[in-house]
Amino acid sequence: MATPGPVHEALAELELTDHHCHGAATAGLAPEEFAALLTEGAAWPGVSPFDSPVGVAVRRHCAPLLDLPRHAPPADYTARRSALGPREVNRRFLTAARAEAFFVDTGHAPLPLTSPAELAAAAGAAAREVVRLEQVAEAVAARGVEPDAYAAAFRTAAEEAVRRPGVVAVKSVAAYRTGFALDPARPADAEVTWAARHWLASGGRLRDPVLTRHLLWTAVDLGLPLQLHTGFGDADLRLHHADPALLTDWLRLTSGTVPVLLLHCWPYHRQAAYLAAVFEQVYLDVGLALHHTGPTRCRAVLEEALEITPFRKMLYSSDAYGLAEFHHLGALCFRHGLADLLQDRVDADELSLPDALRIAAWTGRDNARRLYGPLVSAPARDPSGRPTRKV
Amino acid sequence: MATPGPVHEALAELELTDHHCHGAATAGLAPEEFAALLTEGAAWPGVSPFDSPVGVAVRRHCAPLLDLPRHAPPADYTARRSALGPREVNRRFLTAARAEAFFVDTGHAPLPLTSPAELAAAAGAAAREVVRLEQVAEAVAARGVEPDAYAAAFRTAAEEAVRRPGVVAVKSVAAYRTGFALDPARPADAEVTWAARHWLASGGRLRDPVLTRHLLWTAVDLGLPLQLHTGFGDADLRLHHADPALLTDWLRLTSGTVPVLLLHCWPYHRQAAYLAAVFEQVYLDVGLALHHTGPTRCRAVLEEALEITPFRKMLYSSDAYGLAEFHHLGALCFRHGLADLLQDRVDADELSLPDALRIAAWTGRDNARRLYGPLVSAPARDPSGRPTRKV
Amino acid sequence: MATPGPVHEALAELELTDHHCHGAATAGLAPEEFAALLTEGAAWPGVSPFDSPVGVAVRRHCAPLLDLPRHAPPADYTARRSALGPREVNRRFLTAARAEAFFVDTGHAPLPLTSPAELAAAAGAAAREVVRLEQVAEAVAARGVEPDAYAAAFRTAAEEAVRRPGVVAVKSVAAYRTGFALDPARPADAEVTWAARHWLASGGRLRDPVLTRHLLWTAVDLGLPLQLHTGFGDADLRLHHADPALLTDWLRLTSGTVPVLLLHCWPYHRQAAYLAAVFEQVYLDVGLALHHTGPTRCRAVLEEALEITPFRKMLYSSDAYGLAEFHHLGALCFRHGLADLLQDRVDADELSLPDALRIAAWTGRDNARRLYGPLVSAPARDPSGRPTRKV
């Protein structure tokens, strides 16, 4: 561990922009629900979800916020969590995260989660919305549409969705649905119609490669920053299909259009760093890995991710989902890991202190401001009705 | 290096379960045989096999057990080794490993190796057997079988093999033969017959993709834990085809059946950790990499492998083959590396000492006990004749 | 950081062999030219190229050689660089690199670069030439050739190119053109003719898979060491197609022929290490990554690359291109990183000091001497006119 110094102080004080997260659960959680949220989806009989790096981190860094000792036993933790109730639990962790703003993916809520406005209120911070495009497409399909009208209907629905007040970005989970080993070209109308015919007839989630390509190209047309889940996620993934290097040809074709934010990336964060180093429009974060690997490893992951990444290209996100612990823990891991690595470089005279402070502020907040536009106090509908990065 | 503390003491005293290794050579080794065993198969003219990380580790950590100084010259090492003779060399290193049990893959012995019973006797430990299924299949082929009888003959032979006393697991080297980029589905009978016809006519090792899939699905039916070589190995491998992430679809299909143990994994240990984190039946180790990378790097490899791995999912193996040095060195690297990383976390108050001790015992011994069943003093044939995890 | 010790002293004094680099720019550089060279090709509006790991390293370690303070502001740096002029800038950095020899890839010079002789004169060192085979092939095409004469014409041109005085190796950038997921077999004459017909008619760079395979097999026939770009490079790359593990089948087929040097490798340096550990003819370096990741990370990259690499198989290269800063910075990063990791092992008694000094000298100089042949004072044409490793 590095000796704490001015970079630690600066990062402790910095109000972060968490540019990709989800809501926190609004209802009390049964033990198996808590377990499933703690471990990215899995609750296995006979194995405590606390017996994991993230479980250790929660007992160490979250228990004190629930008035428990460090390393509190799991049973004490869940009992105290239940006793306090979701509103108080969320308030404590969300305020502890000390974020200026949360950008909330609202497209995946199998259990009741805080809306962006509720998250903002609980945290005493701003919140903005990230529109998940697969959800928009699936809503179009659910409403009923003719195959040859799907492309236009999806585009219209997406345009409407991003016109909602507070929307700052769109997101795709193509990594989960098809992976990135796709033909990079924009599909022809006839292909889209053909694929839509098949999908609309068979139903289910959007998993068709042609429609996924169409979705990604429609995202380009929308003009907002595009967030892409890459790397680590739950069991629905084929991890090797979520290697962002597979996006290379598509990034070449879309060069000069919208910013593309590679989310999470682990264990392909070096591949993501390469893309951010050579493509102007590419940015990355190591969200999700921060709290799942915990504070003892997030410095290592950040160091690998930053090996060649330009300092204007790295952002912070928690990718917290369901448990407000993760909004806090992601921020804590990020602050500690980044401060340790930067302060050590300052102490070794490999980096000047002003540069270190600048890199810390960029990564934690200012790169997001630059990319998504500044926050204004009252997000409102843009009178022109057109997508805008200023909210 | 971490300051030694109670976790080091606990791991030094813990009798490990080496859940995947091979026998030690029973005859004296010519220099080129020793060289080939030292370096995973290669003995190159003009290059000393000692000029490698594993060679440095052997001179440092094995020489003293042969009554030589640390860092003894290679010529002294091999001379002393020859003078002591294989029986005494094996005894010294196998007892130094301080294992409770060795689980021995008996399916690959181009040179004479200790049987599990001989290994047990030399080590003063228990030994159990791991049945390599490719060897079973190749023995069936060698005995002669009609193509349309191959599937049943292989199944019968495998069932008989695992019914032998002391068998605790089966193993596949599909990584070497076809790699993991296979159709995950169980092949139809007609496909198996067709593929068997081709293989039985042409002979050689089992390398057919259909028969490999059939082998893996037969392993599922056997009900025992299935060990899969993944990642690093000798020159017969296509490394990128041994990335365990390629198993994802097959793991999804076999969910709820047998435990799957991903062996070695390096350099894809993070991919293996992901699989262990999201699939209930998946476990991993970083055997082979421990002694090949040596004690200066095994902490780093373990830390990467443990970034997201649930602590119930990591096991210890040496994957020692031929040289008893490796049974010792694997254990030594594992103990040092794991103790260093856990003790540092305790010292930084990121982990409680009781938790650290529990994780150490789980990883070194108890996860194997839980998975393979407890050792009993006298392994004996199960009277029912059916496969069982209790031996 | 390690405590400096005798290994640091030895590596500080060692005259390196930089076995793969390019020339330094001979003309003054406009700011955007400097920016593009600093960041592997990209100069983005509104983003300073100095805001990157390599930019930080240049300000820290190169500014003092231009009489500026450490961490000098970018504007001061570029102003001072311009004021000194390219000749003086090159002289300062090239002499600071303290290399015994530079092996210079002369095949890519969109802007005017020092010839090997000019580089040698500026550095006070020897220089040798590496022939880029794609350039030879493209020159053959540019001169005009019938498709069925292409194979022989390319072979003759390549043989002539390597007969030039001072040529020590050939190089291919197949990683950029087709990637390594190629049929490993030598293509038949008819295939080559057919592919040449297509290429010669359409023009452009050599990107045809059959002709790339032909080029690689012709390289084998030439008998000189073959350098292959792998891993990290500029935006023309598909990174995942440059994973050297994809070369496995080709390496198996070409076993026993020419040495193959895997250049750079990051982030696939562990895959490269595996290949170097199991194939006699394979060597690697982590050039390019050294200065792009900078001195704070090159130890980590070297440690990963050396985890299993035999110590006779690792070489030093800078892969410096255009900016003489990189000839210096590569050497500095290499010296610091390797000395830190070796000295720490000595201090922990994991490696003897004589072994550490031997490994340092091998890696920095002697492995290259052994592989490419000793330097003689006056490189001259071999009277037999046949390729030779002695220059």
UniProtKB/TrEMBL annotation, chains A, B, C:
<dbReference type="GO" id="GO:0016787">
    <property type="term" value="F:hydrolase activity"/>
</dbReference>
<dbReference type="InterPro" id="IPR006680">
    <property type="entry name" value="Amidohydro-rel"/>
</dbReference>
<dbReference type="InterPro" id="IPR032466">
    <property type="entry name" value="Metal_Hydrolase"/>
</dbReference>
<dbReference type="Pfam" id="PF04909">
    <property type="entry name" value="Amidohydro_2"/>
</dbReference>
<feature type="domain" description="Amidohydrolase-related">
    <location>
        <begin position="116"/>
        <end position="373"/>
    </location>
</feature>
<protein>
    <submittedName>
        <fullName>Amidohydrolase</fullName>
    </submittedName>
</protein>
